[in-house]
Amino acid sequence: MRRLSAVHESRLAPIIGFCCLAMPVAAGADELNSGDTAWMLTATALVLFMTLPGLALFYGGLVRAKNVLSVLMQCFVSACAMSIVWIGWGYSLAFDTTGMKGGTMNLNSFVGGLGKFFLAGVGVDSMTGTIPESVFITFQMTFAIITPALIAGAFAERMKFSAMLLFSILWSTIVYAPVCHMAWSGAGGFFWDLDVLDFAGGTVVHINAGIAALVAAIMIGKREGFGQVPLPPHSLTITVIGAAMLWVGWFGFNAGSAVAANGAAGMAMLVTQIATAIAALTWMAIEWIKHGKPSVLGIVTGAVAGLVAITPASGSVGPLGALAIGFASGLCCFWGATSLKQKLGYDDSLDAFGVHGIGGIVGAILTGVFASESFGGLGLAKESIAEQVGVQVVSVAFTVVYSGLLSFVILKVVDVVVGLRVNNDDESQGLDLALHSEQGYNMEF
Amino acid sequence: MKLLKCVVRPNALEKVKEALSGLGVMGMTVSEVKGFGRQKGHKELYRGAEYTIDFTPKIEIEVVVGDDLAEQCVDAVCKAAQTGQIGDGKIFMVPVDEVVRIRTGETGDAAI
């Protein structure tokens, strides 16, 4: 989301043109801008494309052939269920601004009210900034869809479908919507009032999902045979296609977070491309040096790491910052997905934490450095880099603790209600047959 | 009659087929198989997780021929499938008691 302090706005106005914040407070105050609206309609479709089929294929290729459908199903059902949760109460909990006042901390700094329960009061003429509120709702809905779907990478190949569905509904309500509210609902929001820079979802999407993924991977336990028998990806071809779709869709995610078709959107697009490219090359180079060969899975994972890390920064850094953030993310996520995971021994099957958690943290913190004009950024919201990094760290730490604790509680509850994990027989048979009575590939004749 | 089970490199299949056809062999059964002998498998690396894959993909060609043709066929397969490197494969020759052509009920050499 567009996140500019008052100081910030006046500083940037001549550069990128004043655009109304994505604040429901301002609803109705602006004229509809057809350019902005056209772009946001497009961006919304692009972000949905990230989940369906982007993430679904990215994850689907990484599991064994007997579980490919289970992963595609988890992404698909996430798109369906989160849509309903979002229009039901998610959007209201995230963007209802009742009781919020800039500089005042109260319950509504952390979570929205139910004023927009089932989109109460939203009509064809409702506005959010310069675009119809209907477009803003749908755009944000696609973020709410992909975030729980990201977590699925951690518990792939062993979680019950019912448990995954229940977890996603509870998690998006209790974890996603409040953190989204804190960051993006406007003046009075916890992160907003701290002057945290999170343009497109470092805390809201990636750290949030990454930490939940780590907690889930630890709680559900390792896959049968983890560390003893090979559990190789069944189709890296599918994974590469999915990663490529994620990359393309991410332009909607980051450039769309300007909520306008303006200079900020353009710069977000540019820095997204730069960070992704350098992170992919970094990962490739590390593998080449360390193992003697550059791997395909390595370069695409590096690309996703770059996309993740530039997300919070994409509205406030310039090309130099994008290079630095992409490089750091490639380096740190490689360490996270390989060394750290092996050292600690958890089975984050598809590296949801290693890429989204670590990449999100790297990006969120470095945003505080490279947003500075001295590094070619668009300007800090605080007076100095140290102060900006300080509030970035506070937002990261808060998200880690909040998502970590509540994800733990939600998983405990889901475990009691339906059980988290399939039994051993179902796991060895594969979730496609055991849970869905289907197979991804019927190659026999 | 003899059954020749020829385990060869996948890329040798075409040459073996042509060599056998050249000797007048009229049919064969081909399967994708995996195994290891002196040639061990390979290593795969996914995000730092190293897997040793012991079994190497091979093609098994099963062909039944008359006793008079068996030795020639073995030579032909060897010639067609040989690279001189470890992993060229093996040929197992097994005696066959009877062959029946299901369509006609013919037996013996006439059914091959």
How many extended strands of chain B? Answer: 6
- How many helices of chain B? The count is 2
Described by the principal axes of the CA atoms, the overall outline of chain A is globular
Characterize the largest beta sheet of chain B: strand count, sense, and whether it forms a barrel: 4 strands, antiparallel
The secondary-structure class of chain A comes to: mainly alpha
Number of strands of chain A: 2
SSE topology string of chain A: HHHEEHHHHHHHHHHHH
The average pLDDT score of chain A comes to 93
Radius of gyration of chain B, rounded?
A: 17 Å
Helix content of chain A: 55-70%
> Low-confidence runs of chain A (pLDDT<50, min 5 residues)?
2-28
Greatest chain-chain contact: A-B, 17 and 9 residues
| CATH A-level architecture of chain B | 2-Layer Sandwich
Number of helices, counting only DSSP H or I runs of 4 residues or more of chain A: 15
Report the CATH topology name of chain A: Ammonium transporter fold
**Rg measurement of chain A, Å:** 21 Å
Q: Indicate the proportion of strand residues of chain A.
A: under 5%
Total domain units of chain A = 1
